[in-house]
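name: query_chain
kind: protein
chains: 1
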Amino acid sequence: MKKYCSLILTLCLAAALAGCGITTLPTPEDPEPPAAADPEEITYEVTTDPHEETVHAEDGTLLMTVSFQLPHLQAYADGTLIETPATPAQEEAMARVNTFNENFNQWRESGDTAQSMEDAKSLYQSFPDAFSNTSYCEEFTYMAYRTGSLISIAADYYSYLGGAHPNTVYFSWNFDLDSGIFLAIPELAEDPQAFTLAVADMIEVQAVERFQSDPNYAGLSLSDIYWENYREVMEKWASDYAVSFDAEGMTIIFSAYELASYAAGPQEFHFSYEQLASYWSE
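structure:
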């Protein structure tokens, strides 16, 4: 009897609620998970890692100066310099940074700067007058350009270590932030071999046009100005010589002695992105 009364009371209450315009509440659902935090923004900056050094004789005579301004990559998470990575994204960023910076550390350590310093000291002991108006020097400077994920470094290494004249050697490095590796330029082309040969052709054409417009080279052919194997050298432009990018296009530089004599100087060639557009891969 109590069960029937309870049932009647429940039905009456439901009817009364409905009559008053009140509805029953829905069954509570599982709470929504908190929204995922926005991924941190990783950015990169090329700064300069300077190295300055001087060597003097015991009497104070300046024997040698060293000035290396090497590129140095840094990574930031949401604008804060990453020193100790705290997330997987930061660890990946620092792996890229370390690959980039180690390359230039190796370049600095692979040189003969220490030996040149000892040579300067030894020469001064035997021929002090050799340093009366000059001193030995080594200098490294660079320009950095970034487009998208590509960092392009165009550098020159200037040195005077005795002899008739100083010398400048040109270098380049092209680093992809997406893959974290230094790129071989032909890999950017749909057909690397065709691209390499096509650019060699363009180098040769540009060289001919340059010398034809210079009265100092009137009547001379490329074989009169360049080394006998100049075409072979040109075809190795992407693997053995300095290739860099900037806002206008691609620049190739052959240092003195590489394509011609020292008197001819470095040989520089520039090609716009429009000239190269048909060769790039996706």
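note: Confidence is low (pLDDT under 50) at residues 1-25.
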